[in-house]
Design brief:
The protein is α+β, with helices and mostly antiparallel strands. It is built from 2 helices and 4 strands; from the N terminus they run ββββαα. A 4-stranded antiparallel β-sheet has the order 1-2-3-4. The longest helix has 25 residues. The chain is extended, with a radius of gyration of 18 Å. It starts with a strand and ends with a helix.
Length: 100
């Protein structure tokens, strides 16, 4: 079920909606394009589907990031972002070493 659509330029739009998949509510954000020949909308591979529960975990962090963009980063948020980035790199390095 589409909750809303955001028109973009050039026959594209973003659709946001919630649906059930295997008994779990999934919130989907996906880019769609208009096939000019058929005059039908088709989904692209650009998008994300996450459980509503996972979105509830992510939203406070997204709001915090948007506040940073509006106000500029504080020293604490820069340190936190650096810490998260370092952890991500360490995990990626660890998974590469396991494959070798």
């Amino acid at each position: 079920m589409t909750a809303f659509e955001l028109p973009l330029n050039g026959g594209e739009k973003i659709k946001v909606g919630v649906k059930k998949y295997r008994g779990v509510e999934i919130l989907s954000i996906r880019k769609w394009f208009l096939n000019a020949y058929e005059q039908k909308w088709f989904p692209t591979t650009k998008g994300i589907n996450l459980s509503v529960q996972r979105w509830r975990q992510i939203l406070p962090e997204l709001e915090r990031l948007l506040d940073i963009e509006d106000e500029g980063p504080t020293e604490a948020t820069v340190q936190q972002a650096t810490h998260v980035n370092t952890e991500s790199k360490q995990r990626a390095k660890g998974s590469k070493e396991k494959k070798q």
